[in-house]
Design a protein that fits this description.
This protein is mainly alpha-helical and 189 residues long. The chain has one domain. The chain has a two-stranded antiparallel sheet.
């Protein structure tokens, strides 16, 4: 407890929450997925179903790429095209520019991976003939996969996390394989 003679330390204001950006980050993903699975119940027209789903996927792609990536995790990516070809550009906010809230970061990455995982699964299901909307699932995979890849390339932290996960997993697998070989050797003796 502070005494009257203590100088008050300046308090840093809390980082602003971006609830609207977070809502739309999930909203367009969920609506596109739900529409993909129920569109044949709503309408028998392939063209209507296709157009609605592609528009929802495009809204999700644009919102994620241009708005929620900046607000929720401080990352941005884009592609520059010119006469000599095209180049991908990746940008991360400098340290201290803005505080990224852990909850927003976690929800951003979870939604990105879940959407991409869903579209991978939907494409596999469509390939095996259980859905006639294979082109929609491929477009969903391209849209969500390119956003996931672009933001992954922007984030040094995400790359470090993946490297750590791969190292831990490979170490665990190697230790397990070594233990198994030792147990087999002991059992043979």
């Amino acid at each position: 407890m502070a005494t009257p003679g203590d100088a008050a330390l300046p308090m840093e204001p809390p980082a602003p929450s971006h609830n609207i950006a977070l809502f739309f980050h999930g909203f367009f993903k969920v609506v596109a997925v739900v529409w993909y699975w129920i569109c044949t119940i709503v309408s028998n027209s392939f063209i209507i179903n296709f157009v609605v789903c592609i528009v929802l996927l495009a809204l999700d792609f644009w919102t994620t790429k241009n708005i929620t990536g900046r607000y929720l995790v401080g990352l941005r990516w884009w592609n520059e095209a010119n006469d000599t070809g095209s180049a991908w550009r990746f940008e991360m906010l400098p340290e201290g520019t803005r505080t990224v809230l852990p909850r927003e970061k976690r929800l951003f990455w979870t939604a990105m991976m879940a959407a991409t995982g869903h579209w991978i699964l939907a494409t596999v299901i469509a390939v095996f003939g259980l859905s006639s909307y294979i082109i929609v699932s491929i477009m969903g995979l391209l849209f969500s996969g390119s956003n996931l890849w672009g933001y992954f390339k922007c984030s040094r932290e995400a790359q470090a996390d993946l490297k750590g996960y791969i190292n831990n997993t490979s170490n665990s697998l190697m230790q397990g394989a070594i233990k198994q070989q030792l147990n087999q050797a002991v059992n043979r003796v």
